[in-house]
Amino acid sequence: MTIGTIIRKFESLPSTNDTARELIRAGAAHGTVIVADEQTRGRGTKGRSWHSPPGRGLYASFILRWDDPEEFEAPFSLLPLAAGLAAFEAVRGSTGVEARLKWPNDLVRDRKKLGGILTEAVFRAGGPGWAVVGIGINVNQEEEDFPGELKTSATSIRLVTGRPADSEALLVSLCRTLDCWYNSLIQGGRERIIRSYEERMPFLPGTRVRVATAGGEKAGVFRGLTPEGRLRFEAAGGPGSVSLEEILGLDWE
Ligand code: BTN
After folding, report:
1. 117 lines ligand 1 (CB under 6 A)
2. Which of 65, 99, 105, 152 is the most buried if burial means most Cβ atoms within 10 Å?
3. What residue ranges in the chain does DSSP mark as E strands?
4. What is the pLDDT of residues 7-35, one digit of tens each?
5. Which atom of ligand 1 is nearest to the CA of 115?
6. What is the pLDDT of residues 40-71, one digit of tens each?
7. Separation of CA 61 and ligand 1 centre (Å)
8. What is the pTM of this model?
């Protein structure tokens, strides 16, 4: 089933990702989308929260399921990158805003956060599997809608264009682009995902970056992404790479 064939809309939910998980347990089909006008406990990556005021952002979770384990041969770590590409294209296609993809989960514009992706998955070894891709996009926030430090670190489509944007059109576009990139992922398009993602990043190979992990911070030169979607860099101590589970912070010159 194409992503977006079934869209379930809610006025308010704690988190669309949590509802997606419940619906998976209840047998929801591949491609089902859960959207809420507001989230009261919206979640970000690394246990952070995702500010989700009513009527301002797009808060959507996409249920992906596969019956045959061989259907999903690509490394699971490429799924957030495929979702990022989908978000990039949907934003550009439906609003004209050209964002950038800050590896591994962020959509940014002028270094400010425009959107984020929270991918959660459980596999049943040797059997069917599922994943939830949660996408949050700041659509119609004005500066005063962002609390605290988000006032300076976040932006919205409306703040970029100076006019209100249509969340509904963005969602329709997102269903289409995610369907394309998901199919590309499961049909062996790994190389295309990596190359396309690199092209959409806010900095080029050769740029100086600072990479923070639980093990500390390292400065180095960005060298591109590995086939598994790890960030490669060259530091004083030699070449290194970091996975999307390990990364805690990424900055560039
Ligand atoms: C991040 O950048 O930290 C990821 C943010 C993901 C937010 C979306 S909004 C829809 C879905 N439901 C959630 O609780 N989180 C994701």
Report:
1. yes
2. 99
3. 7-13, 33-39, 57-66, 100-102, 106-109, 112-123, 129-138, 208-213, 216-225, 231-235, 238-242, 249-252
4. 999 999 999 999 999 999 999 999 999 99
5. 2
6. 999 999 999 999 999 999 999 999 998 777 77
7. 8
8. 0.96
